[in-house]
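Example record

The entry below shows one chain as it appears in the dataset: sequence first, then structure tokens.
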Amino acid sequence: MKEYKVYKHPTLEIEAIKNGFSWPALLLGVIWMFSKKLWGIAALWVVLFILLAVVAAFTVEASSTFTSLIMAGGNLILFLLPAFKGNEWVMKNLNKRGFIYISSIEAASPEAAIEQFLKGA
């Protein structure tokens, strides 16, 4: 069982977002961000990936251990950060879009959390 935060919109659907680590965000990255309507963060990620690629291209000839560590660290952060912070970003985005936090529910899946919320509502 996982903890899900349930959000409700006055005219749209109900959303349940898992607390904590997001495997889909880890595995799909920017694609996951676009699917969750995190437009600004996804655009920033694309720009940062391009910036890192450009920096890597210009520093390949003057390659040093320090530069390689900086590039590897930057890529690792861009890879891991959505997995650890992604669900938090989704919750903040839901609030901006007019969704209201209702409650936290222990459930096996988001669908089960929504079903459990609807039965108790």
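Notes for this example: The chain has one domain: 2-120. DSSP finds five helices and three strands in the chain.
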